[in-house]
Structure formats: structure tokens, C-alpha cells
Amino acid sequence: MEIFQYQYANNPLLREYVRLVGAKKNPKSINEITYLPIQLFKKHMIKSGEWQTKHIFESSGTTGMLTSKHHILDLDWYDVLSEKIFNSRFGKLEDFLILGLLPSYLERGNSSLVHMVNSFMEKSKNGIHFYLNDFEALANVLSENKFSDKKIILFGVSFALLDFIQSYQSSMSNLIIIETGGMKGRRKELTREELHKNINAAFPNAEISSEYGMTELLSQAYFDSGWFSVAPSMHIDLREITDPLSTESGLKRGAINVVDLGNLDSCAFIATEDIGKKYKGDDQKFNVLGRLDISRLRGCSLLYL
Questions:
Q1: Are 86 and 209 in contact (CB under 8 A)?
Q2: Hey, which CATH number is domain 75-212, 3.30.70, 2.40.128, 3.30.2010, 3.40.50?
Q3: Of 39, 132, 150, 160, which has the maximum CB count within 10 A?
Q4: CB within 8 Å of 137: residues ≥ 6 apart
């Protein structure tokens, strides 16, 4: 609540949006919070306070699409936050060999995902291992470490993982595959269940996970046992699809609102274009079902049925 009051006072865009929609300036509970539409990152420089931009994260999108830009004050803050969230889910980075199969993100540049994975590689101190389209080199690294005591994490964009498993399969048990979504128009969209089933067929003994993150958020949620677990710096709420200003709680399904306390310097209250549901009896778990129909197709979307 303190962060909302700070950002309302120091973020002109949030303040104007609250005024235009007639929302409360001084919300008394989280159900009265106003969430800024995520589309505004495409046309506005979103900052809370006056400070000089040190870095800009840019969304992937597709050719000709207007992309989101997230202005960053402190990259070290992002590195520390993402590492803490990773550690809370998987364990210490130094215990892992980190690999990245993220061709579309590497090609575009200014990707928050590439920056995060690169930071993880540096902190694990096992070298920088990005693979653009060199499946043979990736297969060699996996084969060389099949019986290693060190655990391996492979971050991969969905279409590249599907291309990779057409030529390489393994029963290695020390592997965690974290798919980051995204067909980028190169393959037919799949549900997450279908995607994981395909990957699991090629790596039957590996753990298959997902990362829920985006350019507009500095925090991430990771998939475990069929659900995303909310990071300590996040809160997930659902809104009515037909009423974006609804404050009704207890929805089974709806559009996802995210509180990301990592976004101290931009906006911590984001109304996304994702559709989701919460796990019954545990507010810290949620699932992503797809995208709102009115949304443009974005690179990280998965099909909503």
C-alpha cells in the first residue's frame, strides 16, 4: 500500500489513469488497487520519480509490432531479485550448469530474459553457454554432462526446444528444462500441457518447468507440479474479463493482475493481457490459460482453449 501511494504521487501516468477511470486515490485494501494496463508500456516511458534511464528492456514481439519498453534505473537490483527468486525455487546458482537456447531473444537484443540468464551463467561460474541455432553443440554439452554430479538447467524458447528434440533425446536425470513460452510465429501454438508432454517424451527423466515473466515485470514465477508458484515479491489477482476495473475477489478464472514489488522505479501494479486461474485453497499458486482475445498475438503467448 505504501508503494502504491509513492507511485501515485510520483508516477504521472499512473496518477492520470487513476483520475480518468475514477478509481480511489487512497485505497484501503489490495482489492481497491488500480492496475495500469500493460499496453501503456508500448507508448509511454513509465517511471516513478525523476531519474536517468540506465538500461531499457524491450519485448520481443513480431516483425512490425509495436514493442514494450521497460526503463530500468538499477540493473543490479534486477539481478539480485531474479537470483533470490531462482534460489527459492531451484537452489543456489553455483550448484548448476546454466544453458540457454533462446535464439529469437538473442537476435533481438535488450531482452530481460537474456540478461537474467546471462547473469545466472556468470554467477554459477561455469561459463557462458548460449546456443543460437547450433543444436549439435548443445547436444554435445548435454551428452558430456549426462553423468555429471552437477545439475543442469536449460532455459529454452518453446519453438527452439521443439526443433531441438527432433534431433536429440536423452534419459539424463540431472536436467531441468525451463521453457519460456513463445512460438514466435514459427510453429503452431500449443497448450502448455501439450508442449510439456512433447518435451517430456524426449527427456523422460528430466524435470520440465516454465518461467512466467515478461519485459514489464522484474519478478518471475516458476512452474512446479502443474502450477506457477508466486514469487515472494509478487501477488496475483484476477479481474473480470468484461470489466477491467472490477475489484471482486474470489474469481475462479479471469484476466491476470500482477503486483510486482520489483517494479519500484516503474509501476508495480500491472493489468496483463493473460487469462489465468488460481489454485483452490492456495493463493500463492496460479496457472496461465492463454491470452485475451482482444490482445495482439505476442511472442510469449500460449493457446487458450
A1: no
A2: 3.40.50
A3: 160
A4: 131
Sign for the pseudo-dihedral over CA of 19, 24, 26, 30: negative
What lies within 8 Å, CB to CB, of 153 at 6+ separation is: 90, 96, 97, 98, 99, 175, 176, 177, 178
For range 52-62, the mean pLDDT: 88
CATH assignment, 2-52+234-291? 2.30.38
Q: How far apart are alpha carbons 14 and 287 in whole angstroms?
A: 27
Q: Percent of the chain beyond pLDDT 70?
A: 91
What are the residues whose beta carbons fall under 8 Å from the beta carbon of 63, sequence distance 6 or more? none
pTM for the full model? 0.91
Separation of CA 136 from chain center: 28
Q: So where are the chain's domains?
A: 2-52+234-291, 75-212
Q: Of the candidates 80, 82, 61, which has an alpha carbon nearest to the alpha carbon of residue 184?
A: 61
Say what the pLDDT of residue 282 is.
Answer: 79
